[in-house]
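Appendix C reproduces, verbatim, an entry submitted by the partner laboratory led by Prof. M.T., so that reviewers can inspect both the input and the predicted structure.
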Amino acid sequence: MPAARKKNLPPVSEEALTLIASWFRTLAEPSRLKIRRAREEGAKNITELVTATGLTQANVSRHVQSLVDAGMVGRRREGLTAICFIADPSITELCDNVCNNLLKRLSQQVKKLGGA
């Protein structure tokens, strides 16, 4: 098990912890993760996100709004079209870290079970 990083972090208030938990809850929705993943290839409008995710237009719009409210996604107007883009690149790094960790853990479990 890796050693814990020691940092002199400031205390975190209950209000801050509530905000942090809310931010993570935003990412805890699979549809929002699909939308986030689809935007890794570049900015997309709502129609392109619908095609990329298989979600309905109403669902994509609702989830994009949640991601915008959390500051994870930005939205700009080009004529009548809303273009969505990743506003916080650290989200991609965080998701990559989580995916890599899960792959590593699952690979270790497969090895323990006598798999490849």
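Helices lie at 14-27, 30-38, 46-53, 57-69, 90-112. Additional entries are available on request from the coordinating office.
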